[in-house]
Automatic annotation (TrEMBL):
Pfam families linked to this entry: ZapA
Name listed for the protein in its UniProt record: Cell division protein ZapA
InterPro entries hit by this protein: Cell_div_ZapA-like, Cell_div_ZapA-like_sf
Domain of life the protein comes from: Bacteria
Amino acid sequence: MSHENINLTVLGLEVGFKPGADMGRVQDAVRLVEDRFSVLKVNGGQQSKDILLTFLAIGLADDVLQSQKKLDDVQNRIMSMLSLIEKSDEPL
């Protein structure tokens, strides 16, 4: 088994990924970054690549935070339902 990093090109930059990384997921992430960057580039006009990448990073971070909040909400609802189920199983 090789312990060398796997290199991919993302927006013209060579990026190394550790061995064992889920390369299908990494490639999906690369496509997402490149697609969103293209949209920002079209809408951002002559903004520098650094500024566009900063907007992209903020947008992706916001997506992660929103997803985490939704996950937390779902977990809280599940815990509430489990609590109700456990209470309904108690003898009267």
